[in-house]
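Letters spell out the chain; backbone shape is given numerically. Take this protein:
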Amino acid sequence: MSKPAFRYTHYDLQEQRAGTVIEITLSAVANVRLMNAVNFLRFTETLKHQFVGGVAKKSPIRLTLPESGHWHVVVDMEGHNGQVESNVKMIEKAVRPRMQKAS
C-alpha cells in the first residue's frame, strides 16, 4: 500500500449526521478534502477518490456533511508552496426535526 507523496493533516470526525456543518480554519491557501470513510481509505492508498471541498483561498471555510456516516477531513499543500496550520470544529450539529401539534 502506497501513501500520498505529500504531507497532510488528518482529522477523524467519527460518525456524524447529514447536515452537520464543519468549519475549517487555515493559516494559508491549502486543499481541504471532506471524505467519507471509503474515500479516505482510497486517498491513503493513492487511488482515485471523491471529496467535498477543494482549494480553500479564504479562511474559515464551512462544509456541510451531505450524508450521515463516518467522515474525515484532510488538509494538504499539494500544488501549493509552504506549510499550513489548520483547525477543524463542528459548528452546527444536525438536529432531528420535531413534530408539532396541529392547532
Notes: The chain has a mean pLDDT of 88. The longest strand covers residues 8-16. Residues 8-92 form one domain. Strands lie at 8-16, 21-26, 30-36, 52-56, 61-64, 69-76, 86-92.
